């Protein structure tokens, strides 16, 4: 086994010296005051060994990273029917881009951009008895930690300012690709995005995608074929219009969020999570991208 702790320490101390740490997302007012100097990395191997450096035990807003977890729950509940309502092609556009949605008759390009994730939220609102409670319990199962929670201030902040998400939901509704009321679906979506986790909790949450669909509590949530599909979608769509760049630099399926988190994984080997809230112009964590590029280069562990 490589000396993971030494590798993480080196990567951390190199990346933290970057003169440009990016910019903290401010379009969600509640996220704007997060200290840009936070930086943590956590690695969980498939044998259950954990390695961490920096702020890997501090909570942050997982934001769009939640889209992968919502997708896996929707696939668990309705299987292939997900693909009647959302496509699996990279969008090549920002996460909140609306033009394609109109041109393509209300079928979002993929489930990891906002419009696609809003369709997934609609499926969960239809299928779950108590959507917010049931989804949170699902996440707690994955993480193997009942302390995981929504951040109500972040959810409220987005509810008050998420105009483009209202626009996307209304467009979806006009194309009959939203079954529940716009307000109800977005309330769920904003809560889902507001979930807070630490790097180590996120590594645990994504363990099932490196472990054939079985979570840390030993429950089988999705089958091998569904895991393959979710990992493929992360690789091709997990970083919006920078998915090609992430595959090129890092070479792992992964997902970013505007809270500054990135989770990436190598099936049967490891899950790695980084958090640094400064974002590049595409909305992906600047130091996170740097650190992960170094990680797969130094360990030679990528899918390529
Ligand atoms: N909640 C954010 C939004 O809808 C998520 C975006 C992101 O993390 N890329 O705008």
Structural topology:
Elements: H1 4-15, E1 23-24, E2 40-45, E3 50-54, E4 60-61, H2 66-78, H3 99-103, H4 114-127, H5 131-143, H6 152-161, H7 163-174, H8 182-194, E5 196-197, H9 199-205, H10 207-210, H11 224-237, H12 243-249, E6 254-256, E7 261-266, E8 270-275, E9 278-279, H13 286-299
Antiparallel strand pairs: 1-9, 2-3, 2-8, 4-5, 6-7, 7-8
Helix pairs in contact: 1-13, 2-4, 2-11, 4-7, 4-8, 5-9, 6-8, 7-8, 11-12
The structure holds glutamine.
Please trace the helix and strand order, writing H or E for each element: HEEEEHHHHHHHEHHHHEEEEH
Order of adjacent strands in the largest pleated sheet? 3-2-8-7-6
Tell me the helix content.
Answer: 40-55%
Distance between the termini: 19 Å
Overall morphology = globular
**Rg, alpha carbons:** 18 Å
List the ions, cofactors and other small molecules found in this model: glutamine
Mean pLDDT: 97
Q: Tell me the CATH architecture.
A: 3-Layer(aba) Sandwich
Low-confidence stretches: none
Question: Structural class, please?
Answer: alpha+beta
The CATH C-level class name:
Alpha Beta
What count of structural domains?
Answer: 1
């Amino acid at each position: 086994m490589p000396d993971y702790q030494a590798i993480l320490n080196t990567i951390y101390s190199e990346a933290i010296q970057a003169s440009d740490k990016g910019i903290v997302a401010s379009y969600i007012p509640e996220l704007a005051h997060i200290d840009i100097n936070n930086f943590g990395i956590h690695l969980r191997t498939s044998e259950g060994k954990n390695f961490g450096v920096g702020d890997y035990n501090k909570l942050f807003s997982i934001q769009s990273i939640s889209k992968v977890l919502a997708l896996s729950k929707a696939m668990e509940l309705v299987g292939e029917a997900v693909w009647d309502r959302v496509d699996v092609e990279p969008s090549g556009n920002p996460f909140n881009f609306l033009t394609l949605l109109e041109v393509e008759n209300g079928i979002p390009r993929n489930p990891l951009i906002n419009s696609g994730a809003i369709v997934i939220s609609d499926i969960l609102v239809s299928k779950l008895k108590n959507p917010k409670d049931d989804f949170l319990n699902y996440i707690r199962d994955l993480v193997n930690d009942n302390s995981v929670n929504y951040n109500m201030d972040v959810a409220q902040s987005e509810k008050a300012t998420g105009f483009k998400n209202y626009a996307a939901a209304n467009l979806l509704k006009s194309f009959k690709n939203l079954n529940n009321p716009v307000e109800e679906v977005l309330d769920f979506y904003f809560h889902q995005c507001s979930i807070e986790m630490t790097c180590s909790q996120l590594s645990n949450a994504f363990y099932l995608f490196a472990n054939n669909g079985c979570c840390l509590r030993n429950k089988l949530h999705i089958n091998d074929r569904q895991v393959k599909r979710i990992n493929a979608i992360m690789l091709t769509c997990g970083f919006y219009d920078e998915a090609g760049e992430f595959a090129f630099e890092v070479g792992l399926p992964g997902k970013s969020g505007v809270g500054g988190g990135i989770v990436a994984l190598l099936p049967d080997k490891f899950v790695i999570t980084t958090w640094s809230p400064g974002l590049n112009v595409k909305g992906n964590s600047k130091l996170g991208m740097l650190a992960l590029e170094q990680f797969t280069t130094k360990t030679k562990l990528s899918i390529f």
